[in-house]
Design a protein that fits this description.
By secondary structure, this protein is an alpha/beta fold. Helix content is 50%, strand content 9%. It contains 10 helices and 5 strands. The relative contact order is 0.10.
Length: 209
């Protein structure tokens, strides 16, 4: 579903989704986040969310409520400053697109969000590359090794085999990494979120995945 206060944007997103391969069904659209909580919008797999719905500033509170409810949110905004982008990711947005990135990236990001696989558009890649904030967790060499191998593997069992570890040890390393990110206010509850954190912190490059 689409939350945006510009009818032309909603019309464009509907058209792009209908032409996608496979087609994406837009269940509902509206100018306020309330649409996302009411039928049929509350049944959507993905919420395409305009962060700036009025003149009061970015709607971080609405974004957080959607994320806390387990919704997959693709932020689609005119704002392109690094601080806004990284704040949205720290809150838990699936990914961040500027409206200048257009049809190809919005369709691809929406399909990726529905499948819970990472998606890194150009704007987001640039924001990650310049993220020099001090709130990065200190992962041990083993935690980092397990994390990176997991990004490249289909299962934790495969990680364990490649690194000559037990699956229990792999799970423990991944859980410690999640806890360390949560402790600095940057939760990463899913594999896609951990990939995003690792790219943010320079542990892995997007083209390595």
């Amino acid at each position: 579903m689409v939350v945006d206060d510009h009818p032309v944007v909603i019309a464009g997103v509907r058209a792009w989704c209908s032409l996608a391969d496979p087609p994406i069904q837009v269940l509902d659209a509206g100018p306020t986040v309330a649409t996302a909580w009411l039928p049929p919008g509350n049944g959507a797999d993905v919420v395409v969310f305009d962060l700036q719905l009025d003149l009061t500033g970015p709607a971080y509170g609405d974004l957080k409520r959607l994320v806390d409810a387990g919704r997959q949110v693709v932020v689609y905004s005119m704002r392109a400053d690094r601080e806004t982008v990284l704040n949205c990711l720290d809150i838990g947005a699936f990914t961040y697109l500027t409206k200048a990135e257009g049809e190809d990236h919005l369709v691809a990001a929406t399909l990726a969000a529905a499948q819970n696989v990472p998606y890194l558009p150009p704007m987001l890649s640039g924001a990650f590359g310049t993220d020099n904030r001090p709130d990065r967790p200190r992962l041990s060499p083993r935690e980092t090794e397990v994390l990176l191998e997991w990004f490249r593997s289909e299962s934790k069992e495969m990680v364990a085999k490649r690194l000559h570890l037990t699956v229990r040890r792999v799970n423990a390393c991944l859980e410690r990494a999640r806890i360390k990110y949560a402790n600095v206010g940057r939760p990463a509850p899913t594999k896609a979120a951990l990939v995003a954190r690792a790219i943010q912190d320079g542990l892995v490059q997007a083209d390595e995945l």
